[in-house]
Amino acid sequence: MGSVHHTEVSSMREQGVFSLEDNGHSERSQWMLDSPNPPPLWKKLFSSVKETIFPHGNKFCFSSKKKTCQGHVVSFLQSLFPILSWLRNYKASKFKDDLLAGLTLASLSIPQSIGYANLAKLDPEYGLYTSVVPPLIYAMMGSSREIAIGPVAVVSLLLCSLVQKVEDPVANPHAYRNFVFTVTFFTGIFQTAFGVFRLGFLVDFLSHAALVGFMAGAAIIIGLQQLKGLLGISHFTTKTDAVSVLTSVYKSLHHQITSAEKWCPLNFVLGCSFLIFLLITRFLGRRNKKLFWLPAISPLLSVVISTLIVYLSKADKHGINIIKHVKGGLNPSSAHLLEFHGEHVGQAAKIGLICAIIALTEAIAVGRSFASIKGYHLDGNKEMLSMGFMNIAGSLSSCYVATGSFSRTAVNFSAGCQTAVSNIVMAITVIVSLELFTRLLYYTPVAILASIILSALPGLIDISEACYIWKVDKLDFLACVGAFLGVLFASVEIGLIVAVTISFAKILIQAIRPGIEVLGRVPRTEAFCDVTQYPMAISTPGIIVIRISSGSLCFANANFVRERILKWVSEDDDLKSTAKGRVQAVILDMTNLMNVDTSGILALEELHKRLLSRGVELAMINPRWLVIHKLKLAHFVDKIGKQWIFLTVGEAVDACISSKFASP
């Protein structure tokens, strides 16, 4: 095949230039040129909102004229509240499983919620409040059957580290609490906007690798933060980096041991004893799946037993730090506490955006993991909407930012939950606890809360995943390590900035230096592939076939693409010094190119001029909808000629080979 092509092209080159005749491709190229104009930007935005609210789009509006207004309302409500769809087929057997799962979940959620509220520098009851309203809202609006909603360690740490720079939780606890509620409101607003306008790609800016590093770094920082409660230290730093925390621990211990203010080692002994108990039950639960309930109820058992020990032995009078007062009752309204006027509103919105992205990233990752196990699809936009609504409602009912917890979701899944009713059972159980049992938490040791949080942290550190990332993609591993070190030795926000910066840099490098491949025909096929990947592919003499492997030809990469193509043409001419060896045509495969901006069009025009000055023609293959539309508006199609637009690479190459040459 290669020798035949060489003979035909050699005879054609003697004439000097290509001159295409009508060879049957005109009709197919006309299909591309006559394609309808793409929809304008405002229509795309409207369609995205419409698809989010009415997922069945056209069917909802036009499929049945007989459909009543009431039917439309029912369809809309079922789309917004999925519980209305599956609740009709809900059976007693499912409720039995959900009841057991919900009670098991509550036994883990109650102590963890108190501990995470302590981590967020809030009173214990706010953690319990956060395990009531958000789970109820999510159960009605969410699409995941297994995800367990409530406060989580990473978001609690994030709030603590960011909010305490604006309001001091010690000097002004009420202002700190109000600011947290305001941040939660903005978090819900941003999450809702992500869902309505389909802006989920913003969540993807924190890549999987960066998230693995961020979670691992955050887990270590959370663990270091618990040293205050575990050791019974009275003086502690407000900074979150590892060096500052360890320095603070050393100075505080040294001060309390050497000064009149005595340090009580009983806090450490009690906390470590129950930490060992919690880790043993966790190990047994992993070894034997039938004992899944053991690590789930062990935190609650630890709280009950340690509280009884302190109460009966009056250990609080001998140096054991206790929670003391926990406010009972249902969630009070906090609408009047939100602050939308003042100098810190911008800060609240910024922190809310960060929390929205982190919370959504964790929740969607958790939800999709378990949805894939059960074999159903998780609707990302519905998740964003439900998370947004539940955090807005939470901010109005004394809750702080809630999201999906991996550890509690794993317990919910292992307990055999069937639907989101398990979240409702858990929320009702927490309500009962708030009404009846909060007084019993008075003597609960602070060290126990620290041990409960510490026992949950190993699940956040995924060493095997980090090794896998290193093996597959070194640049991804750099983002992972950057996020980890940034969180560990600088601050949570620095870790996030480093992770997002490295992820952006990776995207930018790929955008600025897109893949540009020289193609050849694979023997005994009609496929044209990269000659570097497929060395057996045959390049047609006198014709260079180039594929632009980039989603966009834009200001960032247009000049690079143009210069690379011209360089290849020049090198090919230099290698073949005789007139017969010169390049006569460049074919651009634009199949992968989804968009082009004005800089890209200018680069194509400049490329066309430079090639014409060398006596080389330019052909385009299968320009996509938006690309061909813009090229027509810029009159570039008229400049190169409609006859130089083809549907396939093979068609273009064959047309060039079979065409005649005009006389010079």
List keywords for this structure.
about 60% helix, disordered N terminus, about 675 residues, elongated, Transcription Regulator spoIIAA, six-stranded mixed β-sheet, 3 domains, mainly alpha
Descriptive notes:
Pfam families: STAS, Sulfate_transp. Its main location: membrane. This is Putative SLC26A/SulP transporter. InterPro entries: S04_transporter_CS (IPR018045), SLC26A/SulP_dom (IPR011547), SLC26A/SulP_fam (IPR001902), STAS_dom (IPR002645), STAS_dom_sf (IPR036513). It is a multi-pass membrane protein. The protein is mainly α and about 675 residues long. It has three domains: about 1-35 and about 515-660, STAS domain (Transcription Regulator spoIIAA, 2-Layer Sandwich), CATH 3.30.750.24; about 40-80, no CATH class; about 85-505, no CATH class. About 60% of the residues lie in helices and about 5% in strands. The protein has 29 helices and ten strands. Strands 4-3-5-7-9-10 form a six-stranded mixed β-sheet. A hairpin with a 6-residue loop joins strand 3 and strand 4. The longest helix is centred in the middle third of the chain and has 30 residues, at about 345-375. About 45% of the residues are buried.
